[in-house]
Design brief:
The protein has 14 helices and 8 strands. It is α/β, with parallel strands linked by helices. The protein has a 6-stranded mixed sheet with strand order 5-6-4-7-3-8, with helices on both faces.
């Protein structure tokens, strides 16, 4: 396979597990033969399972010692609650340590079945050729009568402020995460909220980033992200600050979200966001693999067939009038989940004095 210049990959996230191969057109048969064998007849050698498990445990031990990682993982758990979306896709040290080869085999038998599966091919291949190789290499895939997992329940928005404090006595900085549930990928307002999130943060000219430049060191680092998953979503504004400045830093983050919620952004802000997103779109559609990923994501999310073809037009059609009610709903600061990871002795009393009505957990 190496001699052909082919590349293979496999991945799993909250919404799907996938296997992929990239080959020259002349090696399509070889590639499909290998891909179908991997998907339909994996052997899961015990020594490989042990090796991957130990490697993953080593990575997780390092990650869970990082306050930034811990804050983000805790935020997901808080926002999504008991839903699988609240668990790290890479697992936890406890869950990974307990995985056996039998667990993996059982999962494959129950989950790697034609119902719910998508086979996608992109490149110099006609529809007729694609259907022919699909039938040849996957046509005999048995379809057992199994019940597909039920969609995860939607997360419940907090009522009021909920503050979750993880004490790290030796931490010189505090990791701050502020947010709440948002939208699933197929929600009608998802694209509008995506544009709003770009106006808020994500670039040098965004409102959040521009405001941070005037804080004179109050905020050490900051970003925000919007997760639009298949069945749920979340928005989070993140920051880190010196431990003694945790409370004013948190108040700063909330103030910037208030600016968005109250519609303190302009037509030029929208124009810059649209220009950036329009310019970035071709970059993620340059290769057949990237096109395939976008098409599969749209298909599994239940988006319209023309979603990618009409994406730029829909992006250009987003108006300030549409943005403001969406921003008002998803950037509001009355009902939020707040996760703080840091030296609680440096800011705990001031935090409770500044937010006396919050629920602390």
């Amino acid at each position: 396979l190496t001699a052909t210049g082919a590349s293979t990959s496999a991945a799993a996230d909250h919404d799907d597990a996938s296997a992929a191969i990239t080959v020259l057109k002349s090696d399509t048969a070889l590639g499909m033969d290998l891909l179908s064998d991997v998907v339909l007849h994996p052997s899961f050698p015990a020594e490989e399972v042990n090796r991957v498990r130990e490697r993953q445990l080593s990575v997780l031990r390092a990650e869970y010692a990082d306050p930034a990682f811990l804050a983000s993982a805790a935020f997901d758990r808080v926002v999504y609650g008991p839903s699988p979306y609240g668990l790290p896709t890479a697992g936890t040290p406890q869950s990974v340590a307990g995985i056996t080869r039998d667990d993996i085999v059982s999962f494959h038998e129950a989950s790697c079945v034609p119902p719910g599966a998508i086979l996608a091919l992109a490149g110099d291949i006609t529809p007729a050729e694609a259907f022919a190789v699909a039938r040849k290499y996957f046509g005999s895939w048995p379809a057992p009568s199994v019940a597909l997992p039920a969609p995860p329940s939607a997360p419940v928005a907090p009522k009021g402020l909920r503050i979750f404090l993880i004490d790290e006595p030796r931490a010189a900085e505090t990791q701050i995460r502020v947010g709440a549930p948002a939208l699933a990928r197929r929600h009608p307002d998802a694209l509008t909220l995506f544009v709003a999130s770009r106006i808020f943060a994500g670039g040098y000219d965004s409102l959040y980033n521009a405001a941070i430049r005037d804080t004179k060191g109050l905020i050490l680092s900051a970003n925000s992200s919007l997760a639009t998953l298949r069945f749920a979503g979340s928005f989070v504004a993140a920051a880190s600050a010196p431990a003694a400045q945790t409370v004013p830093a948190l108040q700063f983050v909330l103030a910037q979200m208030d600016r968005m919620a109250s519609g303190q952004f302009t037509e030029p802000d929208l124009t810059r966001a649209r220009r950036y997103l329009s310019g970035a779109y071709p970059i993620v559609m340059e290769t057949p693999a990237q096109v395939l990923t976008r098409v599969v994501t749209a298909a599994e999310s239940g988006l319209p067939e023309d979603f990618n073809a009409t994406y730029l037009q829909k992006l250009d059609a987003v108006t300030l009038a549409e943005l403001k009610p969406v921003a008002s709903r998803y950037f509001q600061t009355k009902s939020l989940d707040i996760v703080l990871v840091g030296n609680a002795s440096a800011f705990g009393d001031a935090l409770k004095k500044a937010f006396p009505a919050a629920a602390y957990e």
